[in-house]
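Researcher: Please generate the 3D structure of the following complex. Treat every line as part of one assembly.
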Amino acid sequence: MLLTLEHVAKTNWVGPYEKRTLLDVSLSLSAGDFVGIWGGHRSGKSTLLRIAAGLELPDSGVVRFDGVDLTTLSRAKRGDLRLRAIGLVRGEGPQSAEFDVADFVTLPLLAHHSRREGRTRAMELLRQVGIVECHDVKWRNLSDTERALVSLAHGLVRRPSVLLADDPTAGLDALQQAEVVSLLRATALKTGVAIVMTASSMSALNGVHEAFTLSDGRLQQVREPTVGGRVIEFPSGSQSA
Amino acid sequence: MSVQNVVLGQLIQHRGYGYELADRLKDWTDALELSEAAIYAALRKLQERGLIEEAGREEARTRGRQSALRVIFEATDDGRAYFSSWMAATARKAPLREELHMQLIVAEDDDVPALLESLVQMEEDCRETLARILAMSFDPERSAHARISPFGVVLVRDGLASHLQATIEWAQRSRKALLNRVPAGATAVPGRHRP
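Model: Done. Output below.
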């Protein structure tokens, strides 16, 4: 397993009140998985992703990345791991309004690559997500779908093994959502990156490999009811003497 | 009525027989919880209304068994005219008549525990229906004769998922509202304060 969350719980403060955001969340992810999590307003979707990314630590429970318990790592080590292996997509755009799309997508690479190398990789990724023609456009001039795709390119440019996308389809219509989700699905299939996508719109779950809902601090898998008695045990072949 | 219209639309696209039509529409019937029998019933009604007619019979190729005759249907001119007018008409919203809405209207304080359980069950039912919607594959290879538009698939799936989302959100809000409800005469429990 690449990433596992085991019985994760987290309490946040909302004004003067204590809010038990996550009560008992377990999730495991292998390479190439594409998981979608729907949750209503303030259901804990972003908290869950921040914990999975090691940006926050859970109050209880374990988060393992490649077998390593994130809760035992120092803040700096978790930062290194994030830089190396975890892409976080939040759709906020660049910190400076003067950055164009190519600058924004190049940015995560500059710690370990030259500007020229970074830019080549960024352009390559923009081509892959189908918006290379927007490379010199400023964030403020992009449409909602273009912003979603640029954010994904920004998250994928370091070739992470896990991509955590926080509501990348927010504000998109059904056809645009389908475009973004099918891109994520194809990316997981082609590159083997494991993807967790949260969504505030349930229809964004169309196309994910596994779908969950997050409510009352619990993650519940969306699946058809299993009919009792339909699983037939396969005979084991040889009997022990 | 709408099932009949969908079947009629399929027959306008290409003539067909019961089993083959059910197969063309399998993704939809699964998602909308319609049985195969609904397709056969629709064929019968359409024929009674003169909107489709029998275009011939052919032997079903069943190996080693007594072969049955398939009845092939096609749309009549009346059927085509009716379908065009249905397509052009403004579709109306189906009435909302949830059993739980009715129960809530007449509920007393003592009924609250049962209502809370019903609300949880409603969320669970929505999750199961969502699973069926997500499992719809809309395999374009399923039938060369299926009349299913690519944007229709995405928009209908979005419509179904949005409906379920609204129902789940309503059930969650209602559950919280019932739990937070302060019974008459009692005082509210103060929240804990930030240390």
